[in-house]
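Run log // design_07
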């Protein structure tokens, strides 16, 4: 760990391909344009600054996670009043090749995950990586590799290209639009309405007003709509249990799921499944 560093850390990757660093920048921190033969994930602990790449400049701050691909020329520029503190995960090409081999996933471009309800567990996962590396308990190598792969898959599923991240504005309308996009992927997560508004930097009244204007319904109604739509997709698989589907859609108990489903579809999940199966049989007859 380096505290008050004025220059970047030199990373040395072990044979198993993952190295986790912690860097706290001093006010006089300076970074020249550089590139690395490995992929980097930056998790901002606190502070503010910009990540500059060939795609432009992306503002980064507390809660952000950013992926920098292999051999991407880049540099960090700190806000002199609030220099950055970062966790840095370095990933060797050997591990990236495994992901590409088995899942056909590559990371040729920079990706960014802004502060959402989804990033809190991701940042916790980064801290887990750091702890496993430090404690070196039996199995730590496999855990480091597995959790790093999980982080990379989150970027594949949740990240936006850096060139798009640079164009994001900070208006209330844009923040609500970004949040609606997040809900499409994160409808199963629990977050209090007050916490959502605070995270977006809006008053509760402003958030609810702008949300209804853009979504045409309340936040609760939108989340329920997304959860029930996902449940309907899962119910088409006869091997999936109703209780498992309820849990996957974000419901903590079966009765809440049944009430929401009946209100939306005018029938129980089991009856909906039977109706869909019968419709499929009639269509194939």
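design_07 sequence
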């Amino acid at each position: 760990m380096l505290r008050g560093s004025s220059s970047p850390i030199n990373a040395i990757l072990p044979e198993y391909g993952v190295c986790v660093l912690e860097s706290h920048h001093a006010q006089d921190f300076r970074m020249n344009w550089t590139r690395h033969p490995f992929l980097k994930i930056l998790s901002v602990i606190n502070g503010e600054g910009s990540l500059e790449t060939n795609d432009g400049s992306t503002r980064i701050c507390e809660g952000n996670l950013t992926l920098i691909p292999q051999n991407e020329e880049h540099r960090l520029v700190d806000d002199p009043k609030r220099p950055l503190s970062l966790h840095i995960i370095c990933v060797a090409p050997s591990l990236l090749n495994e992901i590409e081999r088995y899942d056909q996933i590559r990371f040729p471009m920079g990706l960014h995950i802004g502060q959402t309800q989804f990033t809190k567990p991701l940042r916790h996962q980064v801290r887990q990586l750091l702890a496993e590396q430090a404690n070196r308990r039996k199995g730590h190598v496999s855990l480091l590799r597995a959790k790093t792969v999980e982080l990379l898959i989150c970027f594949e599923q949740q990240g936006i290209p850096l060139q798009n991240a640079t164009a994001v504005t900070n208006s209330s309308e844009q923040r609500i639009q970004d949040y609606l996009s997040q809900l499409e992927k994160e409808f199963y997560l629990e977050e209090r309405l007050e916490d959502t508004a605070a995270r977006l930097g809006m008053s509760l009244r402003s958030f609810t007003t702008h949300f209804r204007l853009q979504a045409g319904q309340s936040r609760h109604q939108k989340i329920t709509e997304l959860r029930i739509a996902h449940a309907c997709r899962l119910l088409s698989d006869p091997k999936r249990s109703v209780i498992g589907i309820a849990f996957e859609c974000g419901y903590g108990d079966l009765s809440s799921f049944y009430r929401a489903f009946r209100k939306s579809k005018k029938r129980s999940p089991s009856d909906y499944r039977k109706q869909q199966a019968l419709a499929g049989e009639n269509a194939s007859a």
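The domain at 2-165 is CATH 2.60.120.280 (Jelly Rolls).
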